[in-house]
Write a structure and sequence with these properties.
By secondary structure, the chain is an alpha/beta fold. Helix content is 54%, strand content 12%. Strands 3-2-1-4-5-6 form a six-stranded mixed beta sheet. The longest helix has 17 residues.
Length: 187
Amino acid sequence: MTTAFLLDTCVISETSLARPRDSVISFLELADNYFMPAGALMEIQMGITMVCATNPVKAVKLSKWYHDLVRAGIPIVETDREISETWGVLAADPRLYKFSPNGGGKRARGGQDLHIAAASLVRRLPIATMNVNDFMVINECYPLPGVYDPLAERWHARMEPLAERYPHQPTTTDAHEDESVHKAVIR
C-alpha cells in the first residue's frame, strides 16, 4: 500500500485487544505510512478514564498499552490552528450536530470524529476506520480524502488525485523554463 493513512481510534484500539482481528493487524503491518490524530489520543484517554471507574485492573493494563503506543514513534497529527479552525466549521454544521459532545445519542462523545475529519481534510490524509457510517455522513457534507475500512479491506470513499484527472502535459516552453529555473538554483 502506498497511501498514508490517518488512523481512527477504533483502528488504534484494536492493538489493545487480546485477540485483535487479523485483517486490521495485517493492514497496520502492510501500510507504508500512518499517523495518529491527537483527537484519537484524547478519545483513548477518555475511554481509559471511564474504565477506571468500573474496572481499575483493566484500566492499568490499558494505561500501559497506551504509554507503549505513544512511545512507539508513530507520528501524531497535532491540533494546530488550521485543524482547529476546520474542526470549528464541522462542529458548527447542523448536519453534523450528532457528532458533537452535546449532540445526543446513547454514548458519550468527545466530538472526536469531527476532529479526526478536520485533521484528514487539512493534512489531506484518508481515514482508516471501521466506523465507516459516521465518516461517510461527514464525507457527504465535506468530501474527505478517503475512508478506508481495514476490517473489510475496502475503500468507501476516495478522492482521485488531481494529477490523474488533469494530467499536465509539459510544453516545450515549460521544459525550457524548468531547465532555466534549475540552472539558476544550482548557481
